[in-house]
Write a structure and sequence with these properties.
The longest helix has 10 residues. The chain is mainly alpha-helical and 66 residues long. The protein is globular and about 45 Å long.
């Protein structure tokens, strides 16, 4: 294993909601309807902040007209 390689930790739902300043319901809506990057580990949702940041920067969280 390369000791110089860094690994990004998985973040919990609580960390992501706090990081983004949104509710749990909003995150769950984004996961189901807007393909927010999230991974189910057992019964828990886990997130990589770098993936979420990229998703937001590329317009994933933008309001879209139906």
């Amino acid at each position: 294993m390369d000791t110089n390689q860094t690994y990004e930790k998985w973040s919990s739902m609580g960390i992501i909601t706090n990081y983004l300043g949104v509710s749990r319901e909003t995150v769950l809506h984004w996961v189901s309807k807007r393909q927010m990057p999230a991974h189910k580990v057992g019964r828990l949702w886990k997130f990589k902040i770098s993936e979420v940041d990229h998703w937001i920067r590329t317009g994933g969280a933008a309001d879209k007209e139906s």
